[in-house]
């Protein structure tokens, strides 16, 4: 890898910007991570299930930073009828996100089975609205499911959906396993996968014991991590960046009870990717010559923009290898959010 | 299961009693857990590597509660020569514990390979001193090892050791996988396994996100948990109780940085086992009629005492099903240790 890269601005196709104080803290960190376009998750409380809610949410985000292109989504539940789908398409909503019931933050109203949503999916296919999938079998629904196999066991459902709706554009979000990489590759061109920064660098060993490395889906084995790094460098557009940056106040991580799931990566989105690639080369998971500028530009923004039919960015970012370290936490708007890889080295990032 | 059991006093063949303030807090909780005999781990700082240290440690424990039978161990490192083994046997030391280097609390001086300890193991076999094994391949030594497969990948080493030293009594501590149960069963009568209370009830899903369920080895899959419950009820003496109760102050769990590994189960040792069996029956992992008084008496004490050649206890405990809940934490001697399953129902325990 080179010590410096000048690349098109990044696009992050899976972000949690929250609302209220947390969004005031987090939205201003999008640009420092090298990102000008974000695909905004709808799992607020209550979830974003109407076009009006989505547009009002976008207004609130724009009021914080109007230099970002916010691509909005709806939360798939029973209220998302074919009419809502057509209304969403007309209003410029980019996609609809499906969460398995109870699997992650604010997903209690999520999907137990896609069968009851068949009409909605048909309408999405007709309107060409993207379906985003959190691809895990909800734990607790089957006795053989644990966090380690919940994604792999979901993949037959992905393949079924794709067979049933071959023109429906589907993104399997935050893939964490070699199995998921293989399943996405086995599907046609309408199916893609996003990969987070943290799953490119973590394994389950860090996710247990360090609550700031704990998220859903959990990080898996070293072999799975190597498969993700390989998916990135051989992606050809099949896989692109979606950080799933998921801020939680430190009190929800270190306070009483279980820790909230989520890793906070927004402020160093592009930087983390370069570090993960460097470490992957060091471990021998990927080869240095595979990390080309084409791969970096593609994964960090171009491939996702292509898939979502968003104009390519004319803005540029410069990433430089430095000895700077990531500070402990973001303290703003009355919240404190601990950074992923706090205290470790990062790249610097500058907008041209 | 019955609502009440009168059983011989339990024996816990794997406990961490620590030293100083922590031992003052924890040692008085041995009896409330229904236990009168404990097998004391040597991973203090510095580790217990001499007979004199072990006897002095036992004196400190007796000064806190002299009604408990403390079985003492040494920490296997280069200083444990055949001479030390013979001296240990003569002094009534019960066994020698081997930790893989760097795998858990205070194990930095541990074993990387048993080959360099062959003379010591030969002397242990001759003296009939028990070898206790933390059976995980140290993560970081091989790129394919993660916390999820570290135990399974260690098992060939166990089988090799048993082949090389067939008369050496070996205990594979805190087995967590179906693989480990199978490996112990595949060995001759000199090899046994201990099972903790928490691995009979946890799976990896709770170990990530809840630091009070985080320990080494980590809890594994639902199938692995079912295998442990089955090992218990079909043990016939092959598996017996070793709680691996591992107290850490709340500051080491919820404070800055990664959480210390360890689940604190001492004060409810026998009670947790009954709850784990009840839940295992509810899930269908085991059948109600398998949980006989013979199995309970055996697992909770008799089988371990037999193996370690400790006299059977004449004391009795009574366990009763109640609606009492486990309190939040033990606060004593200036430390605070959060209980496993705080806030959940437990059985009551009384000494006759």
TrEMBL record, chains A, B:
GO terms for biological process: 'de novo' pyrimidine nucleobase biosynthetic process; 'de novo' UMP biosynthetic process. Keywords: Hydrolase, Metal-binding, Pyrimidine biosynthesis, Zinc. The keyword Hydrolase applies. Its cofactor is Zn(2+). SUPFAM superfamilies: Metallo-dependent hydrolases (SSF51556). Residues 7-255 form the Amidohydrolase-related domain. The keyword Lipid metabolism does not apply. It is an enzyme of class 3 (hydrolase). Its EC number is 3.5.2.3. Pathway: Pyrimidine metabolism; UMP biosynthesis via de novo pathway; (S)-dihydroorotate from bicarbonate: step 3/3. GO terms for cellular component: cytoplasm. One of its GO terms (molecular function) is metal ion binding. PANTHER family: DIHYDROOROTASE. Belongs to the metallo-dependent hydrolases superfamily. DHOase family. Class II DHOase subfamily. This is dihydroorotase.
């Amino acid at each position: 890898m080179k010590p410096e890269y000048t690349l098109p601005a990044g696009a992050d196709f899976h972000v949690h910007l929250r609302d209220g104080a947390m969004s005031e803290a987090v939205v201003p960190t999008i640009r420092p991570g090298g990102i000008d376009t974000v695909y905004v998750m709808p799992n607020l409380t209550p979830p974003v299930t109407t076009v009006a809610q989505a547009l009002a949410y976008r207004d609130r985000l724009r009021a914080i930073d109007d230099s970002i292109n916010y691509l909005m989504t709806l939360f798939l539940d029973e209220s998302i009828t074919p009419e809502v789908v057509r209304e969403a398409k007309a209003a410029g909503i980019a996609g609809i996100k499906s969460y398995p019931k109870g699997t992650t933050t604010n997903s209690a109203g999520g999907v137990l089975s896609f069968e009851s949503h068949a009409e909605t999916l048909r309408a999405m296919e007709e309107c060409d609205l993207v379906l985003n999938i959190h691809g895990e079998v909800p734990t607790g629904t089957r006795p053989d499911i644990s966090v380690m196999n919940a994604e792999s066991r979901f993949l037959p459902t992905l393949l079924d959906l794709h067979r049933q709706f071959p023109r429906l554009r589907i993104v399997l979000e935050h893939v964490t396993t070699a199995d998921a990489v293989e399943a996405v590759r086995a599907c046609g061109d309408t199916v893609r996968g996003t990969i987070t920064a943290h799953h490119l660098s973590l394994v389950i060993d860090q996710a247990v014991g360090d609550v700031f490395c704990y998220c859903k889906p959990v990080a898996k084995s070293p072999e799975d991590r190597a498969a993700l790094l390989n998916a990135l460098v051989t992606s050809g557009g099949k896989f692109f960046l979606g950080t799933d940056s998921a801020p939680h106040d430190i009190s929800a991580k270190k306070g009483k009870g279980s820790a909230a799931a989520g890793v906070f990566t927004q402020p160093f989105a592009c930087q983390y990717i370069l570090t993960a690639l460097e470490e992957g080369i060091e471990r021998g998971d990927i080869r240095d010559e595979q990390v080309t500028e084409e791969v970096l530009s593609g994964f960090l923004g171009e491939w996702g923009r292509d898939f979502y039919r968003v104009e390519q960015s004319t803005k540029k970012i410069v990433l430089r290898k430095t000895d700077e370290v990531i500070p402990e936490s973001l303290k703003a708007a009355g919240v404190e959010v601990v950074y992923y890889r706090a205290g470790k080295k990062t790249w610097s990032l500058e907008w041209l």
